[in-house]
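Recall that a protein's primary structure is simply its ordered list of amino acids. Everything else, from secondary elements to tertiary packing, is in principle encoded there. The following example makes that idea concrete.
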Amino acid sequence: MVKRFVFNIIFLLLAWNSFGQGKFDRKIIIEDSVFYAIEINNQLGILWTGNIDKPLDSAQQYILPVGTKRRSIHLQPLAWDISGEKLYAINFTEFSQNEIIRNLKEIPLDSLEKYQPETNYRPYFYKAAMENNYIENYPFVETYKDYLYMDNFFFDIAVKGDSIYELIAIDNQIIVWYWNGHTWYKSTNYTFDTNACFSTFFSQQNLCVIDGKGNSYFVSDKLNFIAQFQLELPKTILVDNRDNNTINYIQATDYPTQLSIKQIISRNK
């Protein structure tokens, strides 16, 4: 069942930082002094998690049964979020048994297996295709039905409790889909830049969006552009600090692993 609802996207003032170095995809989440970040390796995700005060090279690494392919143009980072004890993500790997209706994943964090350099990836491609698909991804099904060419197709998710917001942008339009635990609701189409990926997140209880050129918004009942930040996606990733309710941005390069997440951020304030 699909119902329509209307959104407003208004400017949200964000803190903005940048520094050199990082291997992570899209964002870093900090919660209860623990950081969560994902590296993409051979399409699959590797979850890094550790104390924000300890060096990155002390973090635990877990292989994820979800990932994203690397397109030659229009890079699509992994769409993922954490809510409670679960990781939510959209599987976008290339594997023969993938089905788009089953690519929205809900993965218990305590089910993850430790990553080792010698890990055999193939079983995890199978898991990514076949497991943890409790919610049908109707937004993907409708998008693939409506569009023949998907070159500038981008998406991301944000999760609050059991509610999932899936944002899909294509051909300079964006739609916000909302899952309330039972039903998908759909916004109208809004004009939106699709020359690069975007990211979505919560800040001060508001659902927020930042596009590839740094235009920042929050979601309410209609679409309003307000301002632009001097950053570029996907060359920039987001730091979502849920302990102090701040959003920062850092360059997506290789981070020095002898430093902690806290040190890396504080050096660039």
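The helical segments are 122-130, 138-146, 261-266. The longest strand covers residues 34-41.
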